[in-house]
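Researcher: I'd like a structural prediction for the single chain below. Treat it as a standalone chain; there are no partners to consider.
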Amino acid sequence: MGALGMVTRSLTRHYSKKNSGPFKLHHQYQSWRTLILEPLSSESVQVRRLSDADSGIVEVNLHRPETKNAIGNEMLRGLRHTFETLEMDDEANVVMISSSVPKAFCAGADLKERKEMTASEVQFFVNSLRSTFALLELLNRAGGTQRLPRLVGKAVAKELIFTGRRIEAKEAMSIGLANYAVPAGEARPKALEIAREINSKGPIAIRMAKKAINDGIEVDLQAALDLEEECYEQLLNTNDRLEGLAAFAEKRKPMYRGE
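Model: Treating it as a single chain, here is the predicted structure.
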């Protein structure tokens, strides 16, 4: 699922933090299209900030071709450093995770490296992996046995986990594991198209919607509705809300600032 994986795992996250210092950029890396963020803690994780009309979109590119992007300690450190730094960057509205390796997004954990680990080192690695991806707020808890049933239902999840079989892109989309299935070579353009759509929306509203969905799925319906109301109340006194109303009345594109 190389091409599909890049789309389905081109994850997005919105930030709207004020007074948090952005990355310092080295001028030698600047170009008309992208800005490469520094410092990078791993050569296998390449970070680019898109510019011009795409300002606000940050692409995190996995680059470990010799292992098809299998996650080892070095890549994990790079990912964690990147996510923690982006969380404090008020200029990052959307994060898109992609792969530079043809026909592969991520082969999972580096089993060759894990083979050399002790039991305690394996446990530490797994805990670190879960906490790192929790920074993306995929779900409150990591773990395939819990995440997969929430996406595709218990019956399908049991079949996939018990058999360990691989599935094609179209089947992944049909069972709800992926949103799109696109031809090879079109994954990144599709992911960027989605990132641009999200980037044009109000970052505070996106953040509150994400919180309502992620946290609400873990509780009963009434508690989830109460949470939704609390999230909406967070938007009432924002400048972005007033800007959205003004733009609608004036029939123009809103200019959200995350305030």
